[in-house]
Amino acid sequence: MKTPIAFTLLVATLLSTASRAELPTGWFNETFGDKQAFEMTTDASVQHSGKPALAIRSRPDHTPGEGSLATVFAADAFRGRRMRFSASVKTESVAKFAGLFMRVSAKGENGKPGLRLRFDNLARRAHGDESIKGTTDWKRYEIVLDVPAESYDTAIGVYLVGAGALWMADPKFEEVGLDVPVTSSDAQPAKLSTAPQLDLGKK
User: Is residue 6 classed exposed, middle or buried when 0-12, 13-18 and 19+ CB atoms within 10 A define those classes?
Assistant: First the structure.
């Protein structure tokens, strides 16, 4: 007997809603690859400085791609300022890598995402990979980016690539002086070509 499509969609919706309900207001999860590969919740059993942590755990019966937890907010109050996102993170058996990320974007058009103006995560630092790997105790990590005048929104969060578990606690988002160096000045993750490729036979 086949499961009715409507019932399947209802179950998926309820599971998605339950997952979101276990996260703080304004936070959401995103998965690349197997959508069921990660459990992403608030973990009251693991605390740092007396506060509960957000957790991302891979499920052993799935092949994990990447799971992330993020909050997105308007950039209006931060334009023209240098901002630091910091948080404490600990990990357990991270097979590939994990870390914090921060993104600043322009306003998109026709429902499309806006141009990425600034971006950084621990894996793609200009001065080297500072990803979190293996099993680590609580440690403070930070990202510092300028918020350009044309910024529309900002996203901050944490990600896990591959199997393992991580916990993030005590996040902070605060202005810093210009004496504090940015951790990246990159815009788009990939460099754009300086000219269009018009030779359709080239591979």
Answer: exposed
How far, in whole angstroms, is CA 198 from its chain's centroid? Answer: 36
CA distances to 167, 190, 191, 194 from 198, rounded to whole Å, are 48, 20, 18, 13
Strand runs labelled E in the chain: 27-32, 38-48, 51-58, 66-74, 82-105, 116-121, 132-146, 153-161, 165-175
pLDDT by residue, tens only, the chain of 203 residues: 444 444 333 333 333 333 444 899 999 999 999 989 999 999 988 888 888 899 999 999 998 999 999 999 999 999 999 999 999 999 999 999 999 999 999 998 887 778 899 999 998 775 667 899 999 999 999 999 999 999 999 999 999 999 999 999 999 999 999 999 999 877 644 444 566 666 666 65
The SS3 of residue 198 is coil
